[in-house]
Amino acid sequence: MRNMAETNIKSKDNKKVSFRWAFKEFIWPRKKILFLGLLLIVIRSLSGLVAPMEIKELLDVVVPAGDIGALYKILIIVSLAILVQALSSFSLTRLLSVEAQHLISILRAKVQKKLLTLPISFFDNNKSGALVSRVMTDVDGVRNLVGTGFVQLIGGLITSVITLVLLININAMMTLFVLVPVGVFAFVALKAFGYIRPIFRNRGKINAEVKGRLTETLNGIRVIKGFNAEKQENAEFEKGVDRLYQNVKKSLTATALMTSSSTLLIGLASAGIMGIGGYYMMDGNGMTAGQFIQFTVLLGFMLAPLVQMGNIGSQLTDALAGLDRTQELMEMEEEDNPAVRTVNLSEVKGDIIFDNVSFRYEESKDVLHNISFNAPSGSVTALVGSSGSGKSTIAGLAATFLNPIEGKVTLDNIDLATVNLSSYRSKLGVVLQDDFLYEGTIRENILFPRPDASEEQLLEAVKGAYVDEFTNRFEKGLDTVIGERGVKLSGGQRQRISIARALLADPRIIILDEATSNLDTESESFIQKSLGILMKGRTTFVIAHRLSTIQKADQILVIEEGKIIESGKHHELLQKKGRYYDLFTYQSRI
Q1: CA–CA gap between residue 472 and residue 361 (Å, rounded)
Q2: Strand, coil or helix: 178
Q3: pTM of the model
Q4: Cys-Cys link to 302, which of 163, 189, 338, 469 (CB 3.0-4.6 A)?
Q5: Rounded CA separation 281/286 (Å)
Q6: Residue 478: exposed, middle, or buried by beta-carbon count in 10 A (0-12, 13-18, 19+)?
Q7: Do residues 314 and 379 share a domain?
């Protein structure tokens, strides 16, 4: 079992690995579409070269000869070339942009699917807002790999090479002069990309942290307002957005360097060809006016993709930085390892045994020490003790949310560490103190574990959990919308919906974690009745601070500092006058 700290997302330099991974995952599987896009870019670029290539003919031959027929011919050729250029440009954008959006939707689904395979400890160490950013923002950059960005980068390079050949054919000396500032720009751009990628990568992390904090703030708005803490929350958020601003400022420096370099490039090239071109034209035999204008226009065709490649390169760098983080997540070890968890459960009796189980969240800091006990099928095992004593950890081990460091937990004599989690959890029901409810109707929340359940099965669960006691008073009954996390319901009503959900799932093993705490007397009475129905004939683990609720448990385990210090039935433990007696006597006086 990995330490919880080790499941956190770690920063590492995956530059080479990330590009190979991105190429294998996104680019190569779509090679046909990308090659078609590349062909469209070449067609668009070649059709764009028709006009400058006809300029020499127009100025040096057609105009001096006054040939109207030839003029019309040039206009028709150029117009057709422009039409081809427009159609290929539309087809390119339509083809690749749609495919990029399709890939983003697929990748988001894959990342979310991967997230749900990771262990509980991973979510304990990462904010939900940061994980949302992983799913929705980090993968967004893939549009620059499969969209027009990557293809334009390759297409722009091809266009520049073709244009370079044409320029050399017109005047090799002028072309050589132009290549010097181009080489300088390429060197500056490569250095800038190397500098900017870690910045983009860090920006993704900061952005995720800021979103995570904002999500926590919105979820805890009642607590914030209740403690008049708006000022300190504002200050904390301002710190986050300032960190984001400082990061963006760094990347803008590199971007500004590339932009100014391209401006210098174009300026030097323009000044150079004016001087050299003017010299050749004055010489009389070196260059005609038509050749000079043709060279100038073609030079723009060569430089424009190079300058554009600088911008596209920046976008691709940003995309790869996001995919670095996506790759980290996609390569994390899943909770349900099929190579280890090979046992698929069919029928479950429900005998659970803890055999010398020890557990730790951090190295050399054990939370449980050699815990051993037997929870027979259909029995109720209550876990009591001080906060932090290890009760929830025992429940987490029984639910397979955690794995023992030493010893083992068995179900019907099968080691749970070897059991397929899906097959086990289909037999498991969990009711928490603050159980999760979706923003939807009461009906949808109860049907959550079994969406295909019949109306009869649904109503049976509703009656068993006494949900109908309050839904009958609602105008829309089970179709009442309960708001985010069930905010429109009372604590007792939310708890009864959670119990109804567990009843509908019909599990063999039940985990009840503080299911009756912080409730009024009437709500607790209803919940105790519904819990009695839920626990009947099922192996049940109950964590409770209210000791009055567990007096009928088959065994009560008193946990202190990760050890079982007492065990027995309620009356047996009272007779011992030990720790349980002290806890029960204290609560009875309150």
Answers
A1: 46
A2: helix
A3: 0.67
A4: 163
A5: 6
A6: buried
A7: no
